[in-house]
């Protein structure tokens, strides 16, 4: 039986377009404010959302998401708040899969089986685990499978073809292709890097391949949608909330507007 995430990505493909996947960390700018912001992503047009579990050392995230994580952690966010965020968003938007994106250490400390059970109970669709090696993922994947959760792994341009095959064989839902985009003066080269990674990844799997890191406007979204199954956007949404400088309504309006712009981009 296909998962909710798989069905959503297949529906986008049936429409002849890429899916739009939006990311925001839980607890940013507050727990309640973060829930409203993630609601706004879906209202604006995101097909899937990723709820970040804030981490004290987010080594794979840029400065923008590090700033948001720091705000959330200083606000006292805990795993229970992340799960509450998932539960409220999933209940309000039953058609939109809600994933948690997290480093492995918090899951390990919380308890692998417990985290899988609690995430599923909250209505979560799965997890993105960027720093969990597939060789060490058996315990998680077993627990996730028992609760119908997808496990999304991350590949990078540096991943060799054999490694891509190992990673894609272990994952489900989609493959997260991390490839930086939108750096001034290097967009054409970086776009080629991302496109090559998608092509190499697709050669190893039937899973959708979704591209993240750096998309911030409809033009870039349309560019990535031309070769990927999904366009993942995080930092640009976080930046809109930071730019609102504490004005929650302005931040929500900005996030909703950006999601609508990007949703139009993936449909070009």
Automatic annotation (TrEMBL):
Its EC number is 4.2.1.20. Keywords: Amino-acid biosynthesis, Aromatic amino acid biosynthesis, Lyase, Tryptophan biosynthesis. Coiled coil: none annotated. GO terms for molecular function: tryptophan synthase activity. Signal peptide: none annotated. Pathway: Amino-acid biosynthesis; L-tryptophan biosynthesis; L-tryptophan from chorismate: step 5/5. The active site is at residues 50, 61. It catalyses: (1S,2R)-1-C-(indol-3-yl)glycerol 3-phosphate + L-serine = D-glyceraldehyde 3-phosphate + L-tryptophan + H2O. It is an enzyme of class 4 (lyase). Pfam families: Trp_syntA (PF00290). PROSITE patterns: TRP_SYNTHASE_ALPHA. NCBIfam families: trpA. The alpha subunit is responsible for the aldol cleavage of indoleglycerol phosphate to indole and glyceraldehyde 3-phosphate. Belongs to the TrpA family. Tetramer of two alpha and two beta chains. HAMAP family: Trp_synth_alpha (MF_00131). This is Tryptophan synthase alpha chain. It comes from Kitasatospora paracochleata.
């Amino acid at each position: 039986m296909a998962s909710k995430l798989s069905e959503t990505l297949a529906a986008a493909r049936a429409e002849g377009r890429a899916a739009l996947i939006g990311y925001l960390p839980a607890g940013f700018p507050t727990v309640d404010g973060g829930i409203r912001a993630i609601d706004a992503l879906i209202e604006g047009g995101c097909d899937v959302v990723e709820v970040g579990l804030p981490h004290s050392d987010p080594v794979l995230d840029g400065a923008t998401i590090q700033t948001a994580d720091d705000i959330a952690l200083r606000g006292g966010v805990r795993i229970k708040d992340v799960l509450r965020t998932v539960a409220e968003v999933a209940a309000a938007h039953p058609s939109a899969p809600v994933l948690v994106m997290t480093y492995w250490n918090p899951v390990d400390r919380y308890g692998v089986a417990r985290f899988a059970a609690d995430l599923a109970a909250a209505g979560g669709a799965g997890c993105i685990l960027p720093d969990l090696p597939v060789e060490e993922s058996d315990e998680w994947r077993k627990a996730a499978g028992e609760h119908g959760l997808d496990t999304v792994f991350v590949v990078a341009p540096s991943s060799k073809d054999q490694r891509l095959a190992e990673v894609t064989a272990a994952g489900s839902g989609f493959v997260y292709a991390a490839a930086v985009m939108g750096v001034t003066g290097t967009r054409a080269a970086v776009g080629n890097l991302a496109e090559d990674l998608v092509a190499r990844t697709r050669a190893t799997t039937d899973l959708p391949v979704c591209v993240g890191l750096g998309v911030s406007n409809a033009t870039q979204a349309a560019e990535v949608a031309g070769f990927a199954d999904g366009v993942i956007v995080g930092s640009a949404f976080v930046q809109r909330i930071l730019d609102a400088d504490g004005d929650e309504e302005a931040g929500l309006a900005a996030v909703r507007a950006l999601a609508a712009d990007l949703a139009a981009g993936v449909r070009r």
